[in-house]
């Protein structure tokens, strides 16, 4: 086995930082704990590429679990730069994807877990109906079943191992409700999203041979963003790594834990560091941001940490924009003043991100930018392209190919075909299937080169000419074909949402696109300039955040995640005399 030139270069780059290098070379269980911009992801991808090149012999491979598909796609891109293509030797995906494709799909028919051979994933409507049926059977009464279900599903996510006394000992009524719900789903040959890691856990726990099979395939397990992954992943890690002989390499930052509402708990990450069989490595340098931004971020967090910028890094700029009125006027100021000022300073549009708390605020910024003629790409829940959807990203890539035409042929057709094969057939397709898919895809792309209609019309054709057939022949369990219909809805000309295809494809001559993102979706990303919009007293924290100490703490961490995204410029936009109290702390800390 030999290391590729890009990998050797990456290891060389890390060698000036002894902690990063030690992590990459570690051969036992290793947890890297570090703040924003400290190179956690860079260390993880380098360690993964090194393991594949030097420790793990072909055909064995490594698995990497991360929070969502968006993070998985980002990791794939970074690994691609290190010469590692994902495929049979490297699984990269969410804990749900891992559970479904690596445990349930291959082994469920060999063990009694109550799944039919043709089980499928329930739609939202089917899940809701099952909740109502289960409520009538297990609880009864006139309360709202869905309200009670929110408590039951929290218990379901938390008490992963049902053989422990807590399952029946704590809230037995909720346990019965969960069991009735699951039986109702199984009766219809269905599983839901939360079932995936739970079933995988049960299968691995009850059948040691499945654990052995996984170890044979993936002797090393990488976990990114550990603090956001919740109890099911943690229990799987305990079982596979500390009970099943798989080596663990995990990275995370408890200060960036922002998914408490899905069951994440930053203490799970910390509990790993207390183990004697785990080497904990802490990184201290922030390679991303200048000293002023690093200090400001500690004010944003409201706690002391010994993080430092690297020697010689430029200080970075902080600017505060106070606007007379609320969100709409603040959005206008972002479009008319803040972004043009950044451009004057020489920052490219595609290096600017506008961050906000919720997608409806993104609508206001999007409208203001549209009116100002500033191109943008959204990565929030109201975006045309759902960034966490592989299908949506594939469609966007096809649009880029079509708009670029033969001359650009970018992305390469081979890459598009690889994406399509994964979407339709999962990992394995026969030669005949590959040939047929290749013909269909090339036929469609060729036929729409130079397409003069709008994005909406092109998406309609995509849906009709490709998706309809693929939906019928697909073997991939994680199907998301409805995403294309969703994109058609998101470009509805009747609601003035349609845009020219080159805009959708990100091919607008001479300009990049500003990124519009919720704070949650901005996690793990970095930009030269970040504009935080709507930093008002009523938004940071909101009334809802103030309901409990835990939610207040999480809101503050969310603010911290936003403040730690820029390399050079952080701009905060808020209403005059109504700024968030955290802005004062941030400013005060940035000065000293
Ligand atoms: N040793 C290093 N030398 C130079 N640059 C580095 C080094 N380590 C990391 N970087 C750079 O620092 C930036 C942040 O790295 P990375 O995204 O891996 O950090 P992170 O810890 O995952 O951040 P976050 O938690 O904020 O998402 C990247 O641009 C990366 O290339």
UniProtKB/TrEMBL annotation:
Keyword Transit peptide set for record: no
Keyword entries, A-Z: ATP-binding, DNA-binding, Helicase, Hydrolase, Isomerase, Nucleotide-binding
Family the entry assigns: Belongs to the helicase family. UvrD subfamily.
Positions with a binding annotation for ATP: 34-41
Reaction equations catalysed: Couples ATP hydrolysis with the unwinding of duplex DNA by translocating in the 3'-5' direction; ATP + H2O = ADP + phosphate + H(+)
Protein name: DNA 3'-5' helicase
Classification via SUPFAM superfamilies: P-loop containing nucleoside triphosphate hydrolases
UniProt domain UvrD-like helicase ATP-binding: residue ranges: 13-290
InterPro entries per the UniProt record, alphabetical: DExx_box_DNA_helicase_dom_sf, DNA_helicase_UvrD-like_C, DNA_helicase_UvrD/REP, P-loop_NTPase, UvrD-like_ATP-bd
Matching Pfam families: UvrD-helicase, UvrD_C
GO molecular function annotations of the record: 3'-5' DNA helicase activity; ATP binding; ATP hydrolysis activity; DNA binding
Naturally occurring in which organism (per UniProt): Bosea lupini
Top-level taxonomy: Bacteria, Pseudomonadati, Pseudomonadota, Alphaproteobacteria, Hyphomicrobiales
């Amino acid at each position: 086995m030999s290391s590729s030139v890009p990998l050797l270069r990456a290891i060389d780059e890390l060698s000036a930082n002894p902690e990063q290098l030690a992590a990459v070379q570690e051969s036992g269980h290793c947890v890297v704990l570090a703040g924003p911009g400290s190179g956690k992801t860079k260390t993880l991808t380098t360690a993964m590429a090194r393991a594949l090149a030097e420790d793990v012999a072909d055909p064995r491979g490594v698995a990497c679990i991360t929070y969502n598909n968006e993070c998985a796609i980002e990791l794939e891109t970074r690994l691609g730069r290190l010469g590692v293509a994902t495929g049979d030797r490297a699984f990269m995906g969410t804990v749900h994807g891992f559970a479904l494709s690596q445990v349930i799909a291959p082994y469920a028919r060999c063990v009694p877990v109550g799944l039919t051979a043709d089980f499928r994933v329930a739609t939202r409507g089917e899940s809701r109906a099952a909740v109502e049926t289960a409520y009538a059977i297990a609880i009864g009464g006139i309360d709202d079943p869905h309200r009670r279900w929110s408590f039951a599903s929290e218990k379901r996510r938390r008490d992963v191992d049902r053989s422990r006394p807590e399952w029946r000992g704590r809230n037995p009524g909720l346990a019965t409700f969960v069991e009735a719900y699951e039986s109702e789903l199984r009766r219809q040959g269905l599983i839901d999203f939360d079932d995936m890691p739970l079933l995988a856990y049960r299968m691995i726990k009850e059948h040691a041979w499945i654990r052995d099979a996984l170890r044979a395939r993936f002797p090393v397990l990488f976990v990114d963003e550990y603090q956001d992954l919740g109890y099911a992943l943690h229990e799987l890690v305990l079982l596979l790594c500390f009970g099943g002989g798989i080596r663990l390499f995990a990275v995370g930052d408890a200060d960036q834990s922002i998914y408490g509402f899905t069951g994440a708990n930053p203490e799970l990450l910390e509990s790993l560091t207390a183990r004697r069989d785990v080497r904990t490595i802490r990184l201290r340098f922030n390679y991303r941001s200048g000293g002023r931004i690093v200090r400001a971020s500690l004010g944003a967090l409201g706690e002391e940490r010994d993080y430092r910028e690297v020697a010689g890094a430029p200080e970075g700029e902080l600017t505060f924009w106070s606007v007379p009125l609320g969100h709409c006027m603040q959005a206008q100021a972002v479009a008319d003043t803040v972004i043009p000022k950044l451009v004057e300073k020489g920052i490219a549009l595609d290096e600017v991100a506008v961050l906000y708390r919720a997608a409806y605020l993104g609508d206001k910024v999007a409208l203001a930018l549209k009116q100002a003629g500033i191109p943008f790409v959204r990565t929030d829940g109201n975006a045309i392209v759902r960034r966490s959807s592989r299908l949506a990203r594939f469609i966007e890539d096809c649009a880029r190919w079509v708009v670029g035409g033969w001359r650009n042929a970018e992305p390469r057709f081979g890459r598009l075909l690889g994406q399509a094969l994964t979407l339709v057939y999962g990992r394995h397709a026969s030669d005949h299937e590959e040939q047929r898919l290749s013909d269909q895809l090339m036929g469609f792309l060729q036929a729409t080169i130079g397409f003069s209609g709008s994005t909406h019309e092109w998406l309609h054709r995509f849906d009709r000419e490709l998706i309809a057939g693929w939906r019928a022949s697909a073997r991939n369990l994680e199907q998301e074909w409805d995403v294309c219909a969703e994109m058609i809805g998101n470009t509805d000309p009747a609601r003035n949402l349609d845009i020219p295809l080159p805009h959708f494809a990100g091919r607008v001559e001479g300009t990049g696109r500003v990124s519009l993102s919720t704070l949650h979706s901005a996690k793990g990303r970095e930009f030269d300039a970040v504009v935080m919009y709507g930093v008002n007293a009523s938004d940071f924290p909101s009334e809802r955040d103030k309901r409990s100490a835990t939610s207040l703490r999480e809101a503050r961490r969310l603010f911290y995640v936003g403040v730690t995204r820029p390399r050079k410029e952080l701009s905060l936009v808020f209403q005059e005399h109504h700024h968030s109290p955290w802005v004062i702390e941030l400013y005060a800390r940035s000065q000293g």
